[in-house]
Structure formats: C-alpha cells, structure tokens
Design a protein that fits this description.
8-stranded antiparallel beta barrel, mainly beta, about 10% helix, about 210 residues
Length: about 210
C-alpha cells in the first residue's frame, strides 16, 4: 500500500438566482449555482501496487482528506467513493461530471463533483450543497522516480520469506530498481525469529543480483 500526501481547495455551491462561475471545464453549468463555502483539504490518497498481463500499475483505493474552513475548523472529511461526511453525520454522495488536468503530472486533476445528500440526516451542514469543485491540488498522483518512496514487500503467504512463496518477487524487485523505489523487508511469520526470517529475505534478494 502506498500513501501520497495531498493538499486541495474545495468550493461548495448551493442554489441561488445567478451563476458567478466562469466557463471553465470544472464549473457547473447550472445557472442557479453560486459559491457558498471554500474549504482547504489535506490528507492522503491510498494506492495499491497491482499487476496484470501488461505489468505493474497503481490501483486507486480511497482518499482520506480532512476539509477545513479558513478559520481552521474541521467541516468535513472525504473518504471512500469520494463521499463527504460532516461531524454532524450529514453526508454527500459524489459523482465526477467533469475534470481538467492538474498543474503537474504529480498533481490531482481539477474536478467537478455532482453531490446529493446521503445517509439518515435530512438537514445538516452538507445537505444544502449540490456541487463541489476541487482545484489547486498539490500532489496525490504516484510518480517515479521523482517521488522516491519505500515499497513494503512480502510473499503473500504468512510465514513465508521472500522467494519461498508464489509472489513474483523478481518482477517486483526489477520494477523497484527501474523506478528508484527502495524495498523494505518485513517479517510476518517470525520463522524461527524475525531477524532470521528477514535475513533469509535479504539473502534471496541479493541472490538476484547475480
């Protein structure tokens, strides 16, 4: 699992009699939409290294973002499926309706979410809102080798050191070398002790250098 740090700005909108948005790609076309609340978000995005016939790729799992107002008070969080939850338990379900490229390859896209009230709370902090605009994101996209993080590797079977199970350790090692990602070896089985199991893992990795 890899966690990437993220900072974003969110603009929540309700409805009124005019539309102050510009014609940008992530502005709502709804003529009644008007900005109401600007929040700053900070947190992490979870990615999991996955593999298929074409090789390795980062599969997005979920965001873990805390959203605060200009005074620094927590207003909501954003979690699985990009849904928003406030401390009063009011919730918004989200659907991405448009997007635009981020400022760099490492930054999340600007996104317009169409949101609808969800959960049991009918009137709360978030229930008046219908649109959420995310922009000015910094970070959030896994890149390599610019972001040199650590990759934790185990062999997929508890009690097995690297090379003793069925995981494609050689391919993971080759990918890590190509992308400048360091490998952290952990002992899960403590067989017969943690240091001895880790030593077997390291010996196996060194045997691949030949």
């Amino acid at each position: 699992m890899r966690r990437l740090f993220l900072a974003v700005t969110l603009l929540l909108t309700g409805c009124s009699g005019f539309n102050p948005f510009g014609p940008g790609p992530v502005d709502p076309e709804d003529a009644t939409a008007t900005p109401d609340l600007v929040l700053t978000g900070a947190g992490v995005l979870k990615f999991q290294c996955s593999a298929d016939k074409d090789g390795y790729w980062w599969r997005f799992i979920a965001p873990e973002v805390v959203l605060m107002n200009p005074a620094g008070r927590k207003i909501a969080t954003q979690g699985a499926d990009f849904n928003f939850t406030a401390p009063d338990k009011s919730k918004l379900s989200s659907k991405i309706v448009s997007s635009a490229p981020g400022k760099t390859d490492a930054d999340l896209k600007d996104v317009l979410f169409r949101v609808t009230p969800a959960g049991k709370i009918k009137t709360g902090t978030l229930t008046p809102y219908r649109w959420v605009k995310r922009d000015e994101a910094k970070g959030g996209i896994p890149t390599a080798p610019e972001n040199r993080n650590y990759e934790h590797v185990h062999d997929g079977v508890q009690g097995k050191a690297l090379g003793e199970g069925k995981a494609p350790v050689t391919r993971v090692r080759d990918w890590a070398i190509r992308n400048g990602v360091r490998i952290v070896v952990e002992s899960e089985g403590l067989d017969p002790t943690g240091p001895e199991e880790v030593a077997r893992c390291i010996r196996y990795l060194r045997s691949l250098e030949g």
